[in-house]
Description:
The protein has helices spanning 38-70, 74-98, 105-110, 112-117, 119-132, 137-157. The protein is mainly alpha-helical.
Amino acid sequence: MSDESGTQDIPAGSPEGGPRPEPIRFFGTTWVSHDNGYALRRTGAATGSLAATVASCLILRFAYEGLQIAATGSLVTVLVIAMFAICSALAFRNTWDGFGNRPDPDRQASLRGLLAIGFVGSLLAYFFRTLMEAPGEKLHREEYETALKLHEKRGARRTGNPSKKKRHR
Protein backbone atom coordinates (compact mmCIF):
# COMPACT_ATOMS: atom_id res chain seq x y z
CA MET A 1 0.00 0.00 0.00
CA SER A 2 1.25 3.48 -0.70
CA ASP A 3 1.82 5.80 2.27
CA GLU A 4 -0.32 8.76 1.21
CA SER A 5 -3.39 6.93 0.01
CA GLY A 6 -4.99 3.62 0.66
CA THR A 7 -4.58 2.37 -2.88
CA GLN A 8 -2.50 -0.73 -3.35
CA ASP A 9 0.17 -0.71 -6.01
CA ILE A 10 0.42 -3.80 -8.17
CA PRO A 11 3.85 -4.80 -9.48
CA ALA A 12 4.52 -3.76 -13.07
CA GLY A 13 4.70 -7.33 -14.37
CA SER A 14 1.32 -8.37 -12.96
CA PRO A 15 -1.54 -9.06 -15.37
CA GLU A 16 -3.84 -6.36 -13.95
CA GLY A 17 -1.28 -3.56 -13.87
CA GLY A 18 -1.98 -0.38 -11.96
CA PRO A 19 -3.27 0.47 -8.52
CA ARG A 20 -6.12 -1.45 -6.92
CA PRO A 21 -8.89 0.28 -4.97
CA GLU A 22 -8.83 0.04 -1.20
CA PRO A 23 -11.78 -1.93 0.19
CA ILE A 24 -14.26 -0.16 2.46
CA ARG A 25 -15.72 -2.00 5.45
CA PHE A 26 -19.04 -3.70 4.54
CA PHE A 27 -18.63 -2.63 0.89
CA GLY A 28 -15.37 -4.18 -0.26
CA THR A 29 -14.50 -2.68 -3.64
CA THR A 30 -18.10 -2.49 -4.89
CA TRP A 31 -17.92 1.29 -4.43
CA VAL A 32 -15.73 1.64 -7.53
CA SER A 33 -18.42 0.84 -10.09
CA HIS A 34 -21.44 0.41 -7.79
CA ASP A 35 -21.89 -3.25 -8.72
CA ASN A 36 -22.22 -6.62 -6.93
CA GLY A 37 -24.98 -5.53 -4.57
CA TYR A 38 -23.69 -2.06 -3.74
CA ALA A 39 -27.21 -0.64 -3.27
CA LEU A 40 -28.22 -3.58 -1.10
CA ARG A 41 -25.07 -3.17 0.99
CA ARG A 42 -25.80 0.53 1.48
CA THR A 43 -29.36 -0.26 2.50
CA GLY A 44 -28.15 -2.91 4.93
CA ALA A 45 -25.47 -0.65 6.40
CA ALA A 46 -27.94 2.21 6.85
CA THR A 47 -30.51 -0.08 8.45
CA GLY A 48 -27.92 -1.67 10.72
CA SER A 49 -26.46 1.62 11.88
CA LEU A 50 -29.92 3.05 12.54
CA ALA A 51 -30.90 -0.06 14.51
CA ALA A 52 -27.66 0.18 16.51
CA THR A 53 -28.40 3.86 17.20
CA VAL A 54 -31.90 3.07 18.46
CA ALA A 55 -30.58 0.23 20.64
CA SER A 56 -27.89 2.56 22.01
CA CYS A 57 -30.47 5.19 22.87
CA LEU A 58 -32.52 2.56 24.70
CA ILE A 59 -29.45 1.57 26.72
CA LEU A 60 -28.85 5.23 27.58
CA ARG A 61 -32.49 5.50 28.61
CA PHE A 62 -32.01 2.60 31.04
CA ALA A 63 -28.94 4.34 32.43
CA TYR A 64 -30.97 7.52 32.91
CA GLU A 65 -33.70 5.57 34.69
CA GLY A 66 -31.01 4.03 36.90
CA LEU A 67 -29.91 7.51 37.89
CA GLN A 68 -33.51 8.40 38.70
CA ILE A 69 -33.96 5.27 40.82
CA ALA A 70 -30.68 5.92 42.65
CA ALA A 71 -31.92 9.45 43.42
CA THR A 72 -28.49 10.92 42.76
CA GLY A 73 -29.88 14.40 42.45
CA SER A 74 -30.61 16.74 39.60
CA LEU A 75 -27.02 18.03 39.29
CA VAL A 76 -25.61 14.57 38.55
CA THR A 77 -28.43 13.84 36.11
CA VAL A 78 -27.85 17.11 34.24
CA LEU A 79 -24.10 16.52 34.13
CA VAL A 80 -24.52 12.99 32.74
CA ILE A 81 -27.00 14.14 30.10
CA ALA A 82 -24.74 17.06 29.12
CA MET A 83 -21.72 14.75 28.95
CA PHE A 84 -23.45 12.31 26.59
CA ALA A 85 -24.89 15.12 24.46
CA ILE A 86 -21.58 16.97 24.08
CA CYS A 87 -19.56 13.80 23.50
CA SER A 88 -22.10 12.59 20.94
CA ALA A 89 -21.95 15.89 19.08
CA LEU A 90 -18.13 15.82 19.05
CA ALA A 91 -18.10 12.16 17.99
CA PHE A 92 -20.55 12.92 15.17
CA ARG A 93 -18.36 15.73 13.89
CA ASN A 94 -15.15 13.72 14.20
CA THR A 95 -16.67 10.70 12.44
CA TRP A 96 -18.19 12.84 9.70
CA ASP A 97 -14.87 14.61 9.07
CA GLY A 98 -13.12 11.23 9.03
CA PHE A 99 -15.11 10.26 5.94
CA GLY A 100 -13.61 13.18 4.00
CA ASN A 101 -9.94 12.98 4.97
CA ARG A 102 -7.54 10.59 6.67
CA PRO A 103 -7.66 11.17 10.42
CA ASP A 104 -4.48 11.84 12.38
CA PRO A 105 -3.67 8.68 14.39
CA ASP A 106 -2.33 10.66 17.37
CA ARG A 107 -5.47 12.80 17.53
CA GLN A 108 -7.66 9.69 17.24
CA ALA A 109 -5.78 8.07 20.13
CA SER A 110 -6.28 11.13 22.32
CA LEU A 111 -10.01 11.27 21.49
CA ARG A 112 -10.65 7.54 22.02
CA GLY A 113 -12.39 7.98 25.39
CA LEU A 114 -14.53 10.87 24.19
CA LEU A 115 -15.55 8.94 21.08
CA ALA A 116 -16.44 5.90 23.18
CA ILE A 117 -18.76 8.00 25.33
CA GLY A 118 -20.28 9.67 22.26
CA PHE A 119 -20.89 6.43 20.39
CA VAL A 120 -24.43 7.50 19.47
CA GLY A 121 -23.03 10.42 17.47
CA SER A 122 -20.66 8.13 15.58
CA LEU A 123 -23.49 5.76 14.72
CA LEU A 124 -25.67 8.63 13.51
CA ALA A 125 -22.85 9.99 11.35
CA TYR A 126 -22.40 6.55 9.79
CA PHE A 127 -26.16 6.30 9.15
CA PHE A 128 -26.44 9.72 7.50
CA ARG A 129 -23.32 9.19 5.40
CA THR A 130 -24.60 5.80 4.23
CA LEU A 131 -27.73 7.50 2.90
CA MET A 132 -25.51 9.50 0.51
CA GLU A 133 -22.69 7.06 -0.30
CA ALA A 134 -20.57 4.34 1.22
CA PRO A 135 -18.86 6.00 4.19
CA GLY A 136 -15.45 7.15 3.00
CA GLU A 137 -16.26 6.54 -0.67
CA LYS A 138 -15.49 10.09 -1.76
CA LEU A 139 -12.06 10.02 -0.10
CA HIS A 140 -11.24 6.57 -1.45
CA ARG A 141 -12.42 7.53 -4.94
CA GLU A 142 -10.23 10.66 -4.99
CA GLU A 143 -7.20 8.68 -3.84
CA TYR A 144 -7.89 5.88 -6.33
CA GLU A 145 -8.35 8.26 -9.27
CA THR A 146 -5.16 10.11 -8.32
CA ALA A 147 -3.27 6.81 -8.16
CA LEU A 148 -4.69 5.80 -11.56
CA LYS A 149 -3.60 9.10 -13.12
CA LEU A 150 -0.11 8.74 -11.68
CA HIS A 151 0.09 5.18 -12.97
CA GLU A 152 -1.01 6.24 -16.45
CA LYS A 153 1.46 9.11 -16.37
CA ARG A 154 4.31 6.78 -15.39
CA GLY A 155 3.28 4.28 -18.08
CA ALA A 156 3.07 6.95 -20.76
CA ARG A 157 6.67 7.99 -20.20
CA ARG A 158 7.99 4.45 -20.55
CA THR A 159 6.65 3.43 -23.94
CA GLY A 160 8.74 1.16 -26.09
CA ASN A 161 11.83 -0.85 -25.40
CA PRO A 162 14.65 1.40 -24.16
CA SER A 163 17.34 -0.95 -25.50
CA LYS A 164 16.11 -0.37 -29.06
CA LYS A 165 16.17 3.40 -28.73
CA LYS A 166 18.18 5.24 -31.37
CA ARG A 167 21.35 6.75 -30.05
CA HIS A 168 22.31 10.21 -31.24
CA ARG A 169 26.06 10.71 -31.70
